UniProtKB/TrEMBL annotation:
The keyword Nucleotidyltransferase does not apply. One of its GO terms (molecular function) is ribosomal large subunit binding. Residues 208-255 form the 60S ribosomal export protein NMD3 SH3 domain. Acts as an adapter for the XPO1/CRM1-mediated export of the 60S ribosomal subunit. Belongs to the NMD3 family. It is found in: Cytoplasm; Nucleus. This is 60S ribosomal export protein NMD3. Residues 483-496 have a biased composition (Basic and acidic residues). GO terms for biological process: protein transport; ribosomal large subunit export from nucleus.
């Protein structure tokens, strides 16, 4: 810290010391050491003091709020042979507040030393929503001075290059990435041979997410233990884990191997279709971890509902027509341990899909199944407007940040405009993934939410129950139906978030300082 700041900090201690002893400096304790340190700083400010002999120096009491310090000095100097002249005089100092160079750099806008640009070229924000929770859990954002949202990711600004390198290493440990760096010369001093640089680190995340359908090129599939080209991404950590649902064969793809010959996902979770399990036959002899091989008969959800031909809409997809929905598909799935006849599951309907991919076009037709099931669905539970008893934290956002157009939540969703609704949908899907995946839930911190009562809101002149999703609204497809139809009983195997998994909001709690220990007994 600068000397001016030291003066400002020690001013209160000085006033307190001289309130008790007007002209004496305490020679013991922390207060005395601070006063002596302040006196030494004041004496160093004087010019020409080295030419005389200083015999005495003491503070003179001043008003604590005057921002003034007075020092009485006694000096001696030999003017003639065996003749010494002694003089005492007062010096007045003005206390001014100041900042150290690092604090001044933080207070000024658009001043940063290093920048980490995190990007992922996917049409959703679910990866960054999960990454935000990992950063909060490991407190990796403590050295960040500012966060800015851009189109395909986030920018993290730092006042030190070491802090940016630490964030880069953290990202490489939790998601598959590739990085490159650059530096820009700001100023240089040829006399002292020093230079001032700004450093930028570009971090790109693999554009494949959990539950995505991936079509590996045939040549690369042979290198990955001769796995089937059509796979499902089951886990994303510091590497990708792909699984063939028909054989339970898996392969681990490190980021270095992926970026050597990258490939993109064939379809994402937004392309999932809901299917109804008609029959399933598990094969207990073929298991891998929590997955169990099974043969299943499925049909598109709602295929056997009675409907008139005139009720069909022209905007329906191909698989929503009468001819396609009445078909029964046979497929092999890795979800034999959790699926039962009558359950619903989300999967990719390859029969009615059209992919613009050279790798998919090279796959032999007999290797392409009609349906690939990805995860179990809970439609009856989703139709109930039940508030969650848990919530997530968000990284604090800086007010008035450049490019910020809305007061949305945390680091994700600041752009506003048309992107706001898309971020809300992604956030709701992310919350559902946390509910349905205990392994994913274990990687983040969940906090207890306050008791929220379902309020009434007026819609079209009628009062309906307000949907509470903690800053998120459920889409109409997932909301309660207004036609009074019975949607069946709630699924008994829905993975509830247990109370033991939730943490307390310690920021909102206050700890007693011990003053309440002496309480009078009635």
């Amino acid at each position: 810290m600068s000397k001016n700041l030291s003066l400002a900090v020690a001013f209160v201690l000085t006033a307190l010391a001289f309130t008790q002893q007007a002209q004496a400096i305490p020679n013991n304790g922390a207060a005395g050491a601070k006063v002596l340190e302040l006196l030494a700083i004041c004496l160093k400010k004087l010019k020409g003091l080295a030419k005389v002999r200083l015999t005495d120096a003491r503070f003179i009491w001043t008003e604590p709020h005057s921002k003034r310090l007075k020092v009485a000095l006694t000096i001696q100097k030999e003017v003639l042979t065996n003749t010494i002249l002694e003089q005492t005089f007062e010096i007045e100092y003005l206390v001014q507040h100041g900042q150290c160079p690092d604090c001044a750099r933080l207070a000024a806008k658009n001043t940063w030393k290093a920048l980490v640009q995190v990007r992922q070229k996917v049409p959703h924000k679910r990866t960054f929503l999960f990454l935000e929770q990992l950063i909060i859990k490991h407190n990796a954002q403590k050295d960040t001075i500012s966060i800015k949202e851009v189109r395909d990711g986030l920018d993290f600004f730092y006042s030190s290059r070491a802090h940016a390198l630490k964030m880069q290493e953290f990202l490489a440990g939790v998601v598959p990435t590739k990085s490159k760096s650059s530096e820009q010369l700001i100023s240089s001093d040829t006399h002292s041979n020093t230079a001032n640089f700004k450093y930028t680190y570009s971090v790109e995340i693999v554009p494949i997410c959990k539950d995505d359908l991936v079509c590996i090129p045939l040549k690369q599939a042979r290198q990955f233990s001769n796995i089937s080209p059509l796979t499902v991404c089951t886990r994303v950590g510091n590497s990708l884990q792909l699984m063939d649902p028909a054989t339970l064969q898996t392969c681990e793809i490190p980021p270095t191997v992926y970026w050597r010959s990258p490939f993109e996902a064939l379809a994402s979770v937004t392309d999932l279709v809901e299917f109804t399990i008609l029959d399933i036959e598990p094969d207990r002899s073929r298991t891998r971890g929590k997955y169990l091989m099974a043969d299943a008969q499925v049909a598109v959800s709602g295929a056997f509902k009675s409907s008139k031909a005139g009720d069909l809409d022209d905007s329906m997809m191909d698989y929503e027509g009468v001819g396609a929905t009445s078909m029964i598909y046979h497929t092999r799935t890795h979800l034999g341990a959790i699926l039962q006849p009558g359950d619903s599951a989300m999967g990719y309907h390859l029969t009615s899909a059209n992919f613009n991919s050279d790798a998919f076009a090279d796959v032999p037709t007999h290797f392409i199944p009609d349906v690939i099931l990805v995860k179990k669905a809970y439609p009856n539970r989703r139709k109930k407007s039940k508030a969650r008893n848990w919530k997530l934290r968000s990284m604090a956002k800086e007010a008035g940040e450049e490019g910020e157009t809305s007061s949305a939540r945390g680091a994700i969703g600041r752009m506003g405009g048309r992107d706001a609704k898309k971020v809300e949908e992604d956030y709701e899907l992310f919350l559902r993934d946390l509910e349905e995946d205990p392994e994913m839930r274990a990687a983040v911190n969940l906090y207890k939410a306050a008791d929220v009562k379902m309020g009434d809101e007026e819609k079209d002149g009628k009062k309906t129950k307000k949907k509470v999703q903690y800053a998120m609204e459920v889409d109409e497809a997932a909301g309660p139906s207004h036609d009074g139809a019975d949607h069946g009983h709630e699924e008994t195997d829905f993975p509830e978030v247990r109370l033991e998994e939730l943490l307390e909001e310690f920021d909102e709690m206050t700890l007693n300082t011990g003053d309440d220990d002496h309480v009078e007994q009635p």
